[in-house]
Design a protein that fits this description.
By secondary structure, this protein is an alpha/beta fold. The chain contains ten helices and 13 strands. The strands form four sheets. Strands 3-2-1-4-5-6 form a six-stranded parallel beta sheet, with helices on both faces. A three-stranded antiparallel beta sheet has the order 11-12-13. The protein has a two-stranded antiparallel sheet with strand order 7-8.
Amino acid sequence: MNSTIFRPSRAVIIGTGAVGTTTAYTLLLRKRVAEIVLIDINHDKAVGEALDMNHGLPFVGGVKVWAGDYSDCEGADIIIVTAGASQKPGETRIDLLKKNAVIFDEIVKNITKYNQDGILLIATNPVDILSYVTLKVSGFPANRVIGSGTLLDSARYRYLLGKHKHIDPRSIHAHIVGEHGDSEVPVWSLANVAGIGLEIDEEDKQKIYDSTKNAAYEIINAKGATFYAIALALDRIVTAIMQNESAVLNVSTLLQDYNGVSDVYLGVPCVVDRTGVREILDLPLNEEETILFHKSANKLKSEIASLYS
C-alpha cells in the first residue's frame, strides 16, 4: 500500500487590504496553487473576501479559498505578507518603517510557530528593510526570504521605455536595481532590445526615470493605493517558485559583496525556482551606476541601523 500522502499546494496571504486581496484574486484566476488562505487581524474582513471569491468558483473552479489563522501556515509552500500600515499621500516608504517593523516582528513570529520550511514573500513597504527584518526574526535561510524588490519598478521602466520606443514592453530588456523607492537605480548601460542598446537623449532618460520612480506617488495621489501591478508582480514570483522555472526576476535578496555591497536587502536580478532565490546574478554596472547603487545601499543600511541601535 502506498503510504504517500498528497498535500495540495498552498499559498497563505497575510493582510487583506488592496494588495493582499488583489494578489489572492490573481492567484485564484490563474490557478497558481490549489489552496489560498487569507489571514487578517480583522478576521471578518478576511471572511468576507474569501466568501466573495468563493462565489466565483463556479466560473473558474479548481482552487479552495478560505479565511484562516496562523495555524494554516503549516505546510504552506509560500506565505505572502502584505499586511502593515499603508503608504499615505505625501508619505515615503521609509516613513512607514518603524510602524511596520513592530507589526512584522509579531507576524513573523506567528508564522514561524507553524512553518519552518516554506518561502516568505514580502510585499509590505519599505519592502527591502522589512525583508531584512523578516530574515532576522524568522531565522530562515536568505534564499527563502524574498522581497518583491524592484520587479515592479523594472516593469514600470520597461513599460515607459516601450512606450517611448513604440515597442512591446515584453521585448524591452532593462533593469531597475537597488531600493524599491526613491534611491532606485536605472541601469541605462544595459537597457536593450534584441541586444541592441537604446538610443535615448538625456532629457528623455530623466523623464522616464522620474516617471518610474514617482509612479507609486502619482497613483496614490490619484486613487489612494497601488495594487493591480504589484499583484501581477507577486503572481509572477509565485509562478516562478511553484513551477520551478529558474526565471530571472528583479527581487529583493540579501547581498554579500555584490558590486561591493553587503548585508542589506536590495532588488537585483536573481534566478528564482522552487528553492526561492537559487542564484544572484552580478550585473556589470558602470561607474556611475555603481556609485548610485552604493548610495541606495547606504541609505537602507542607515535605516536598518536605526532599528537595531
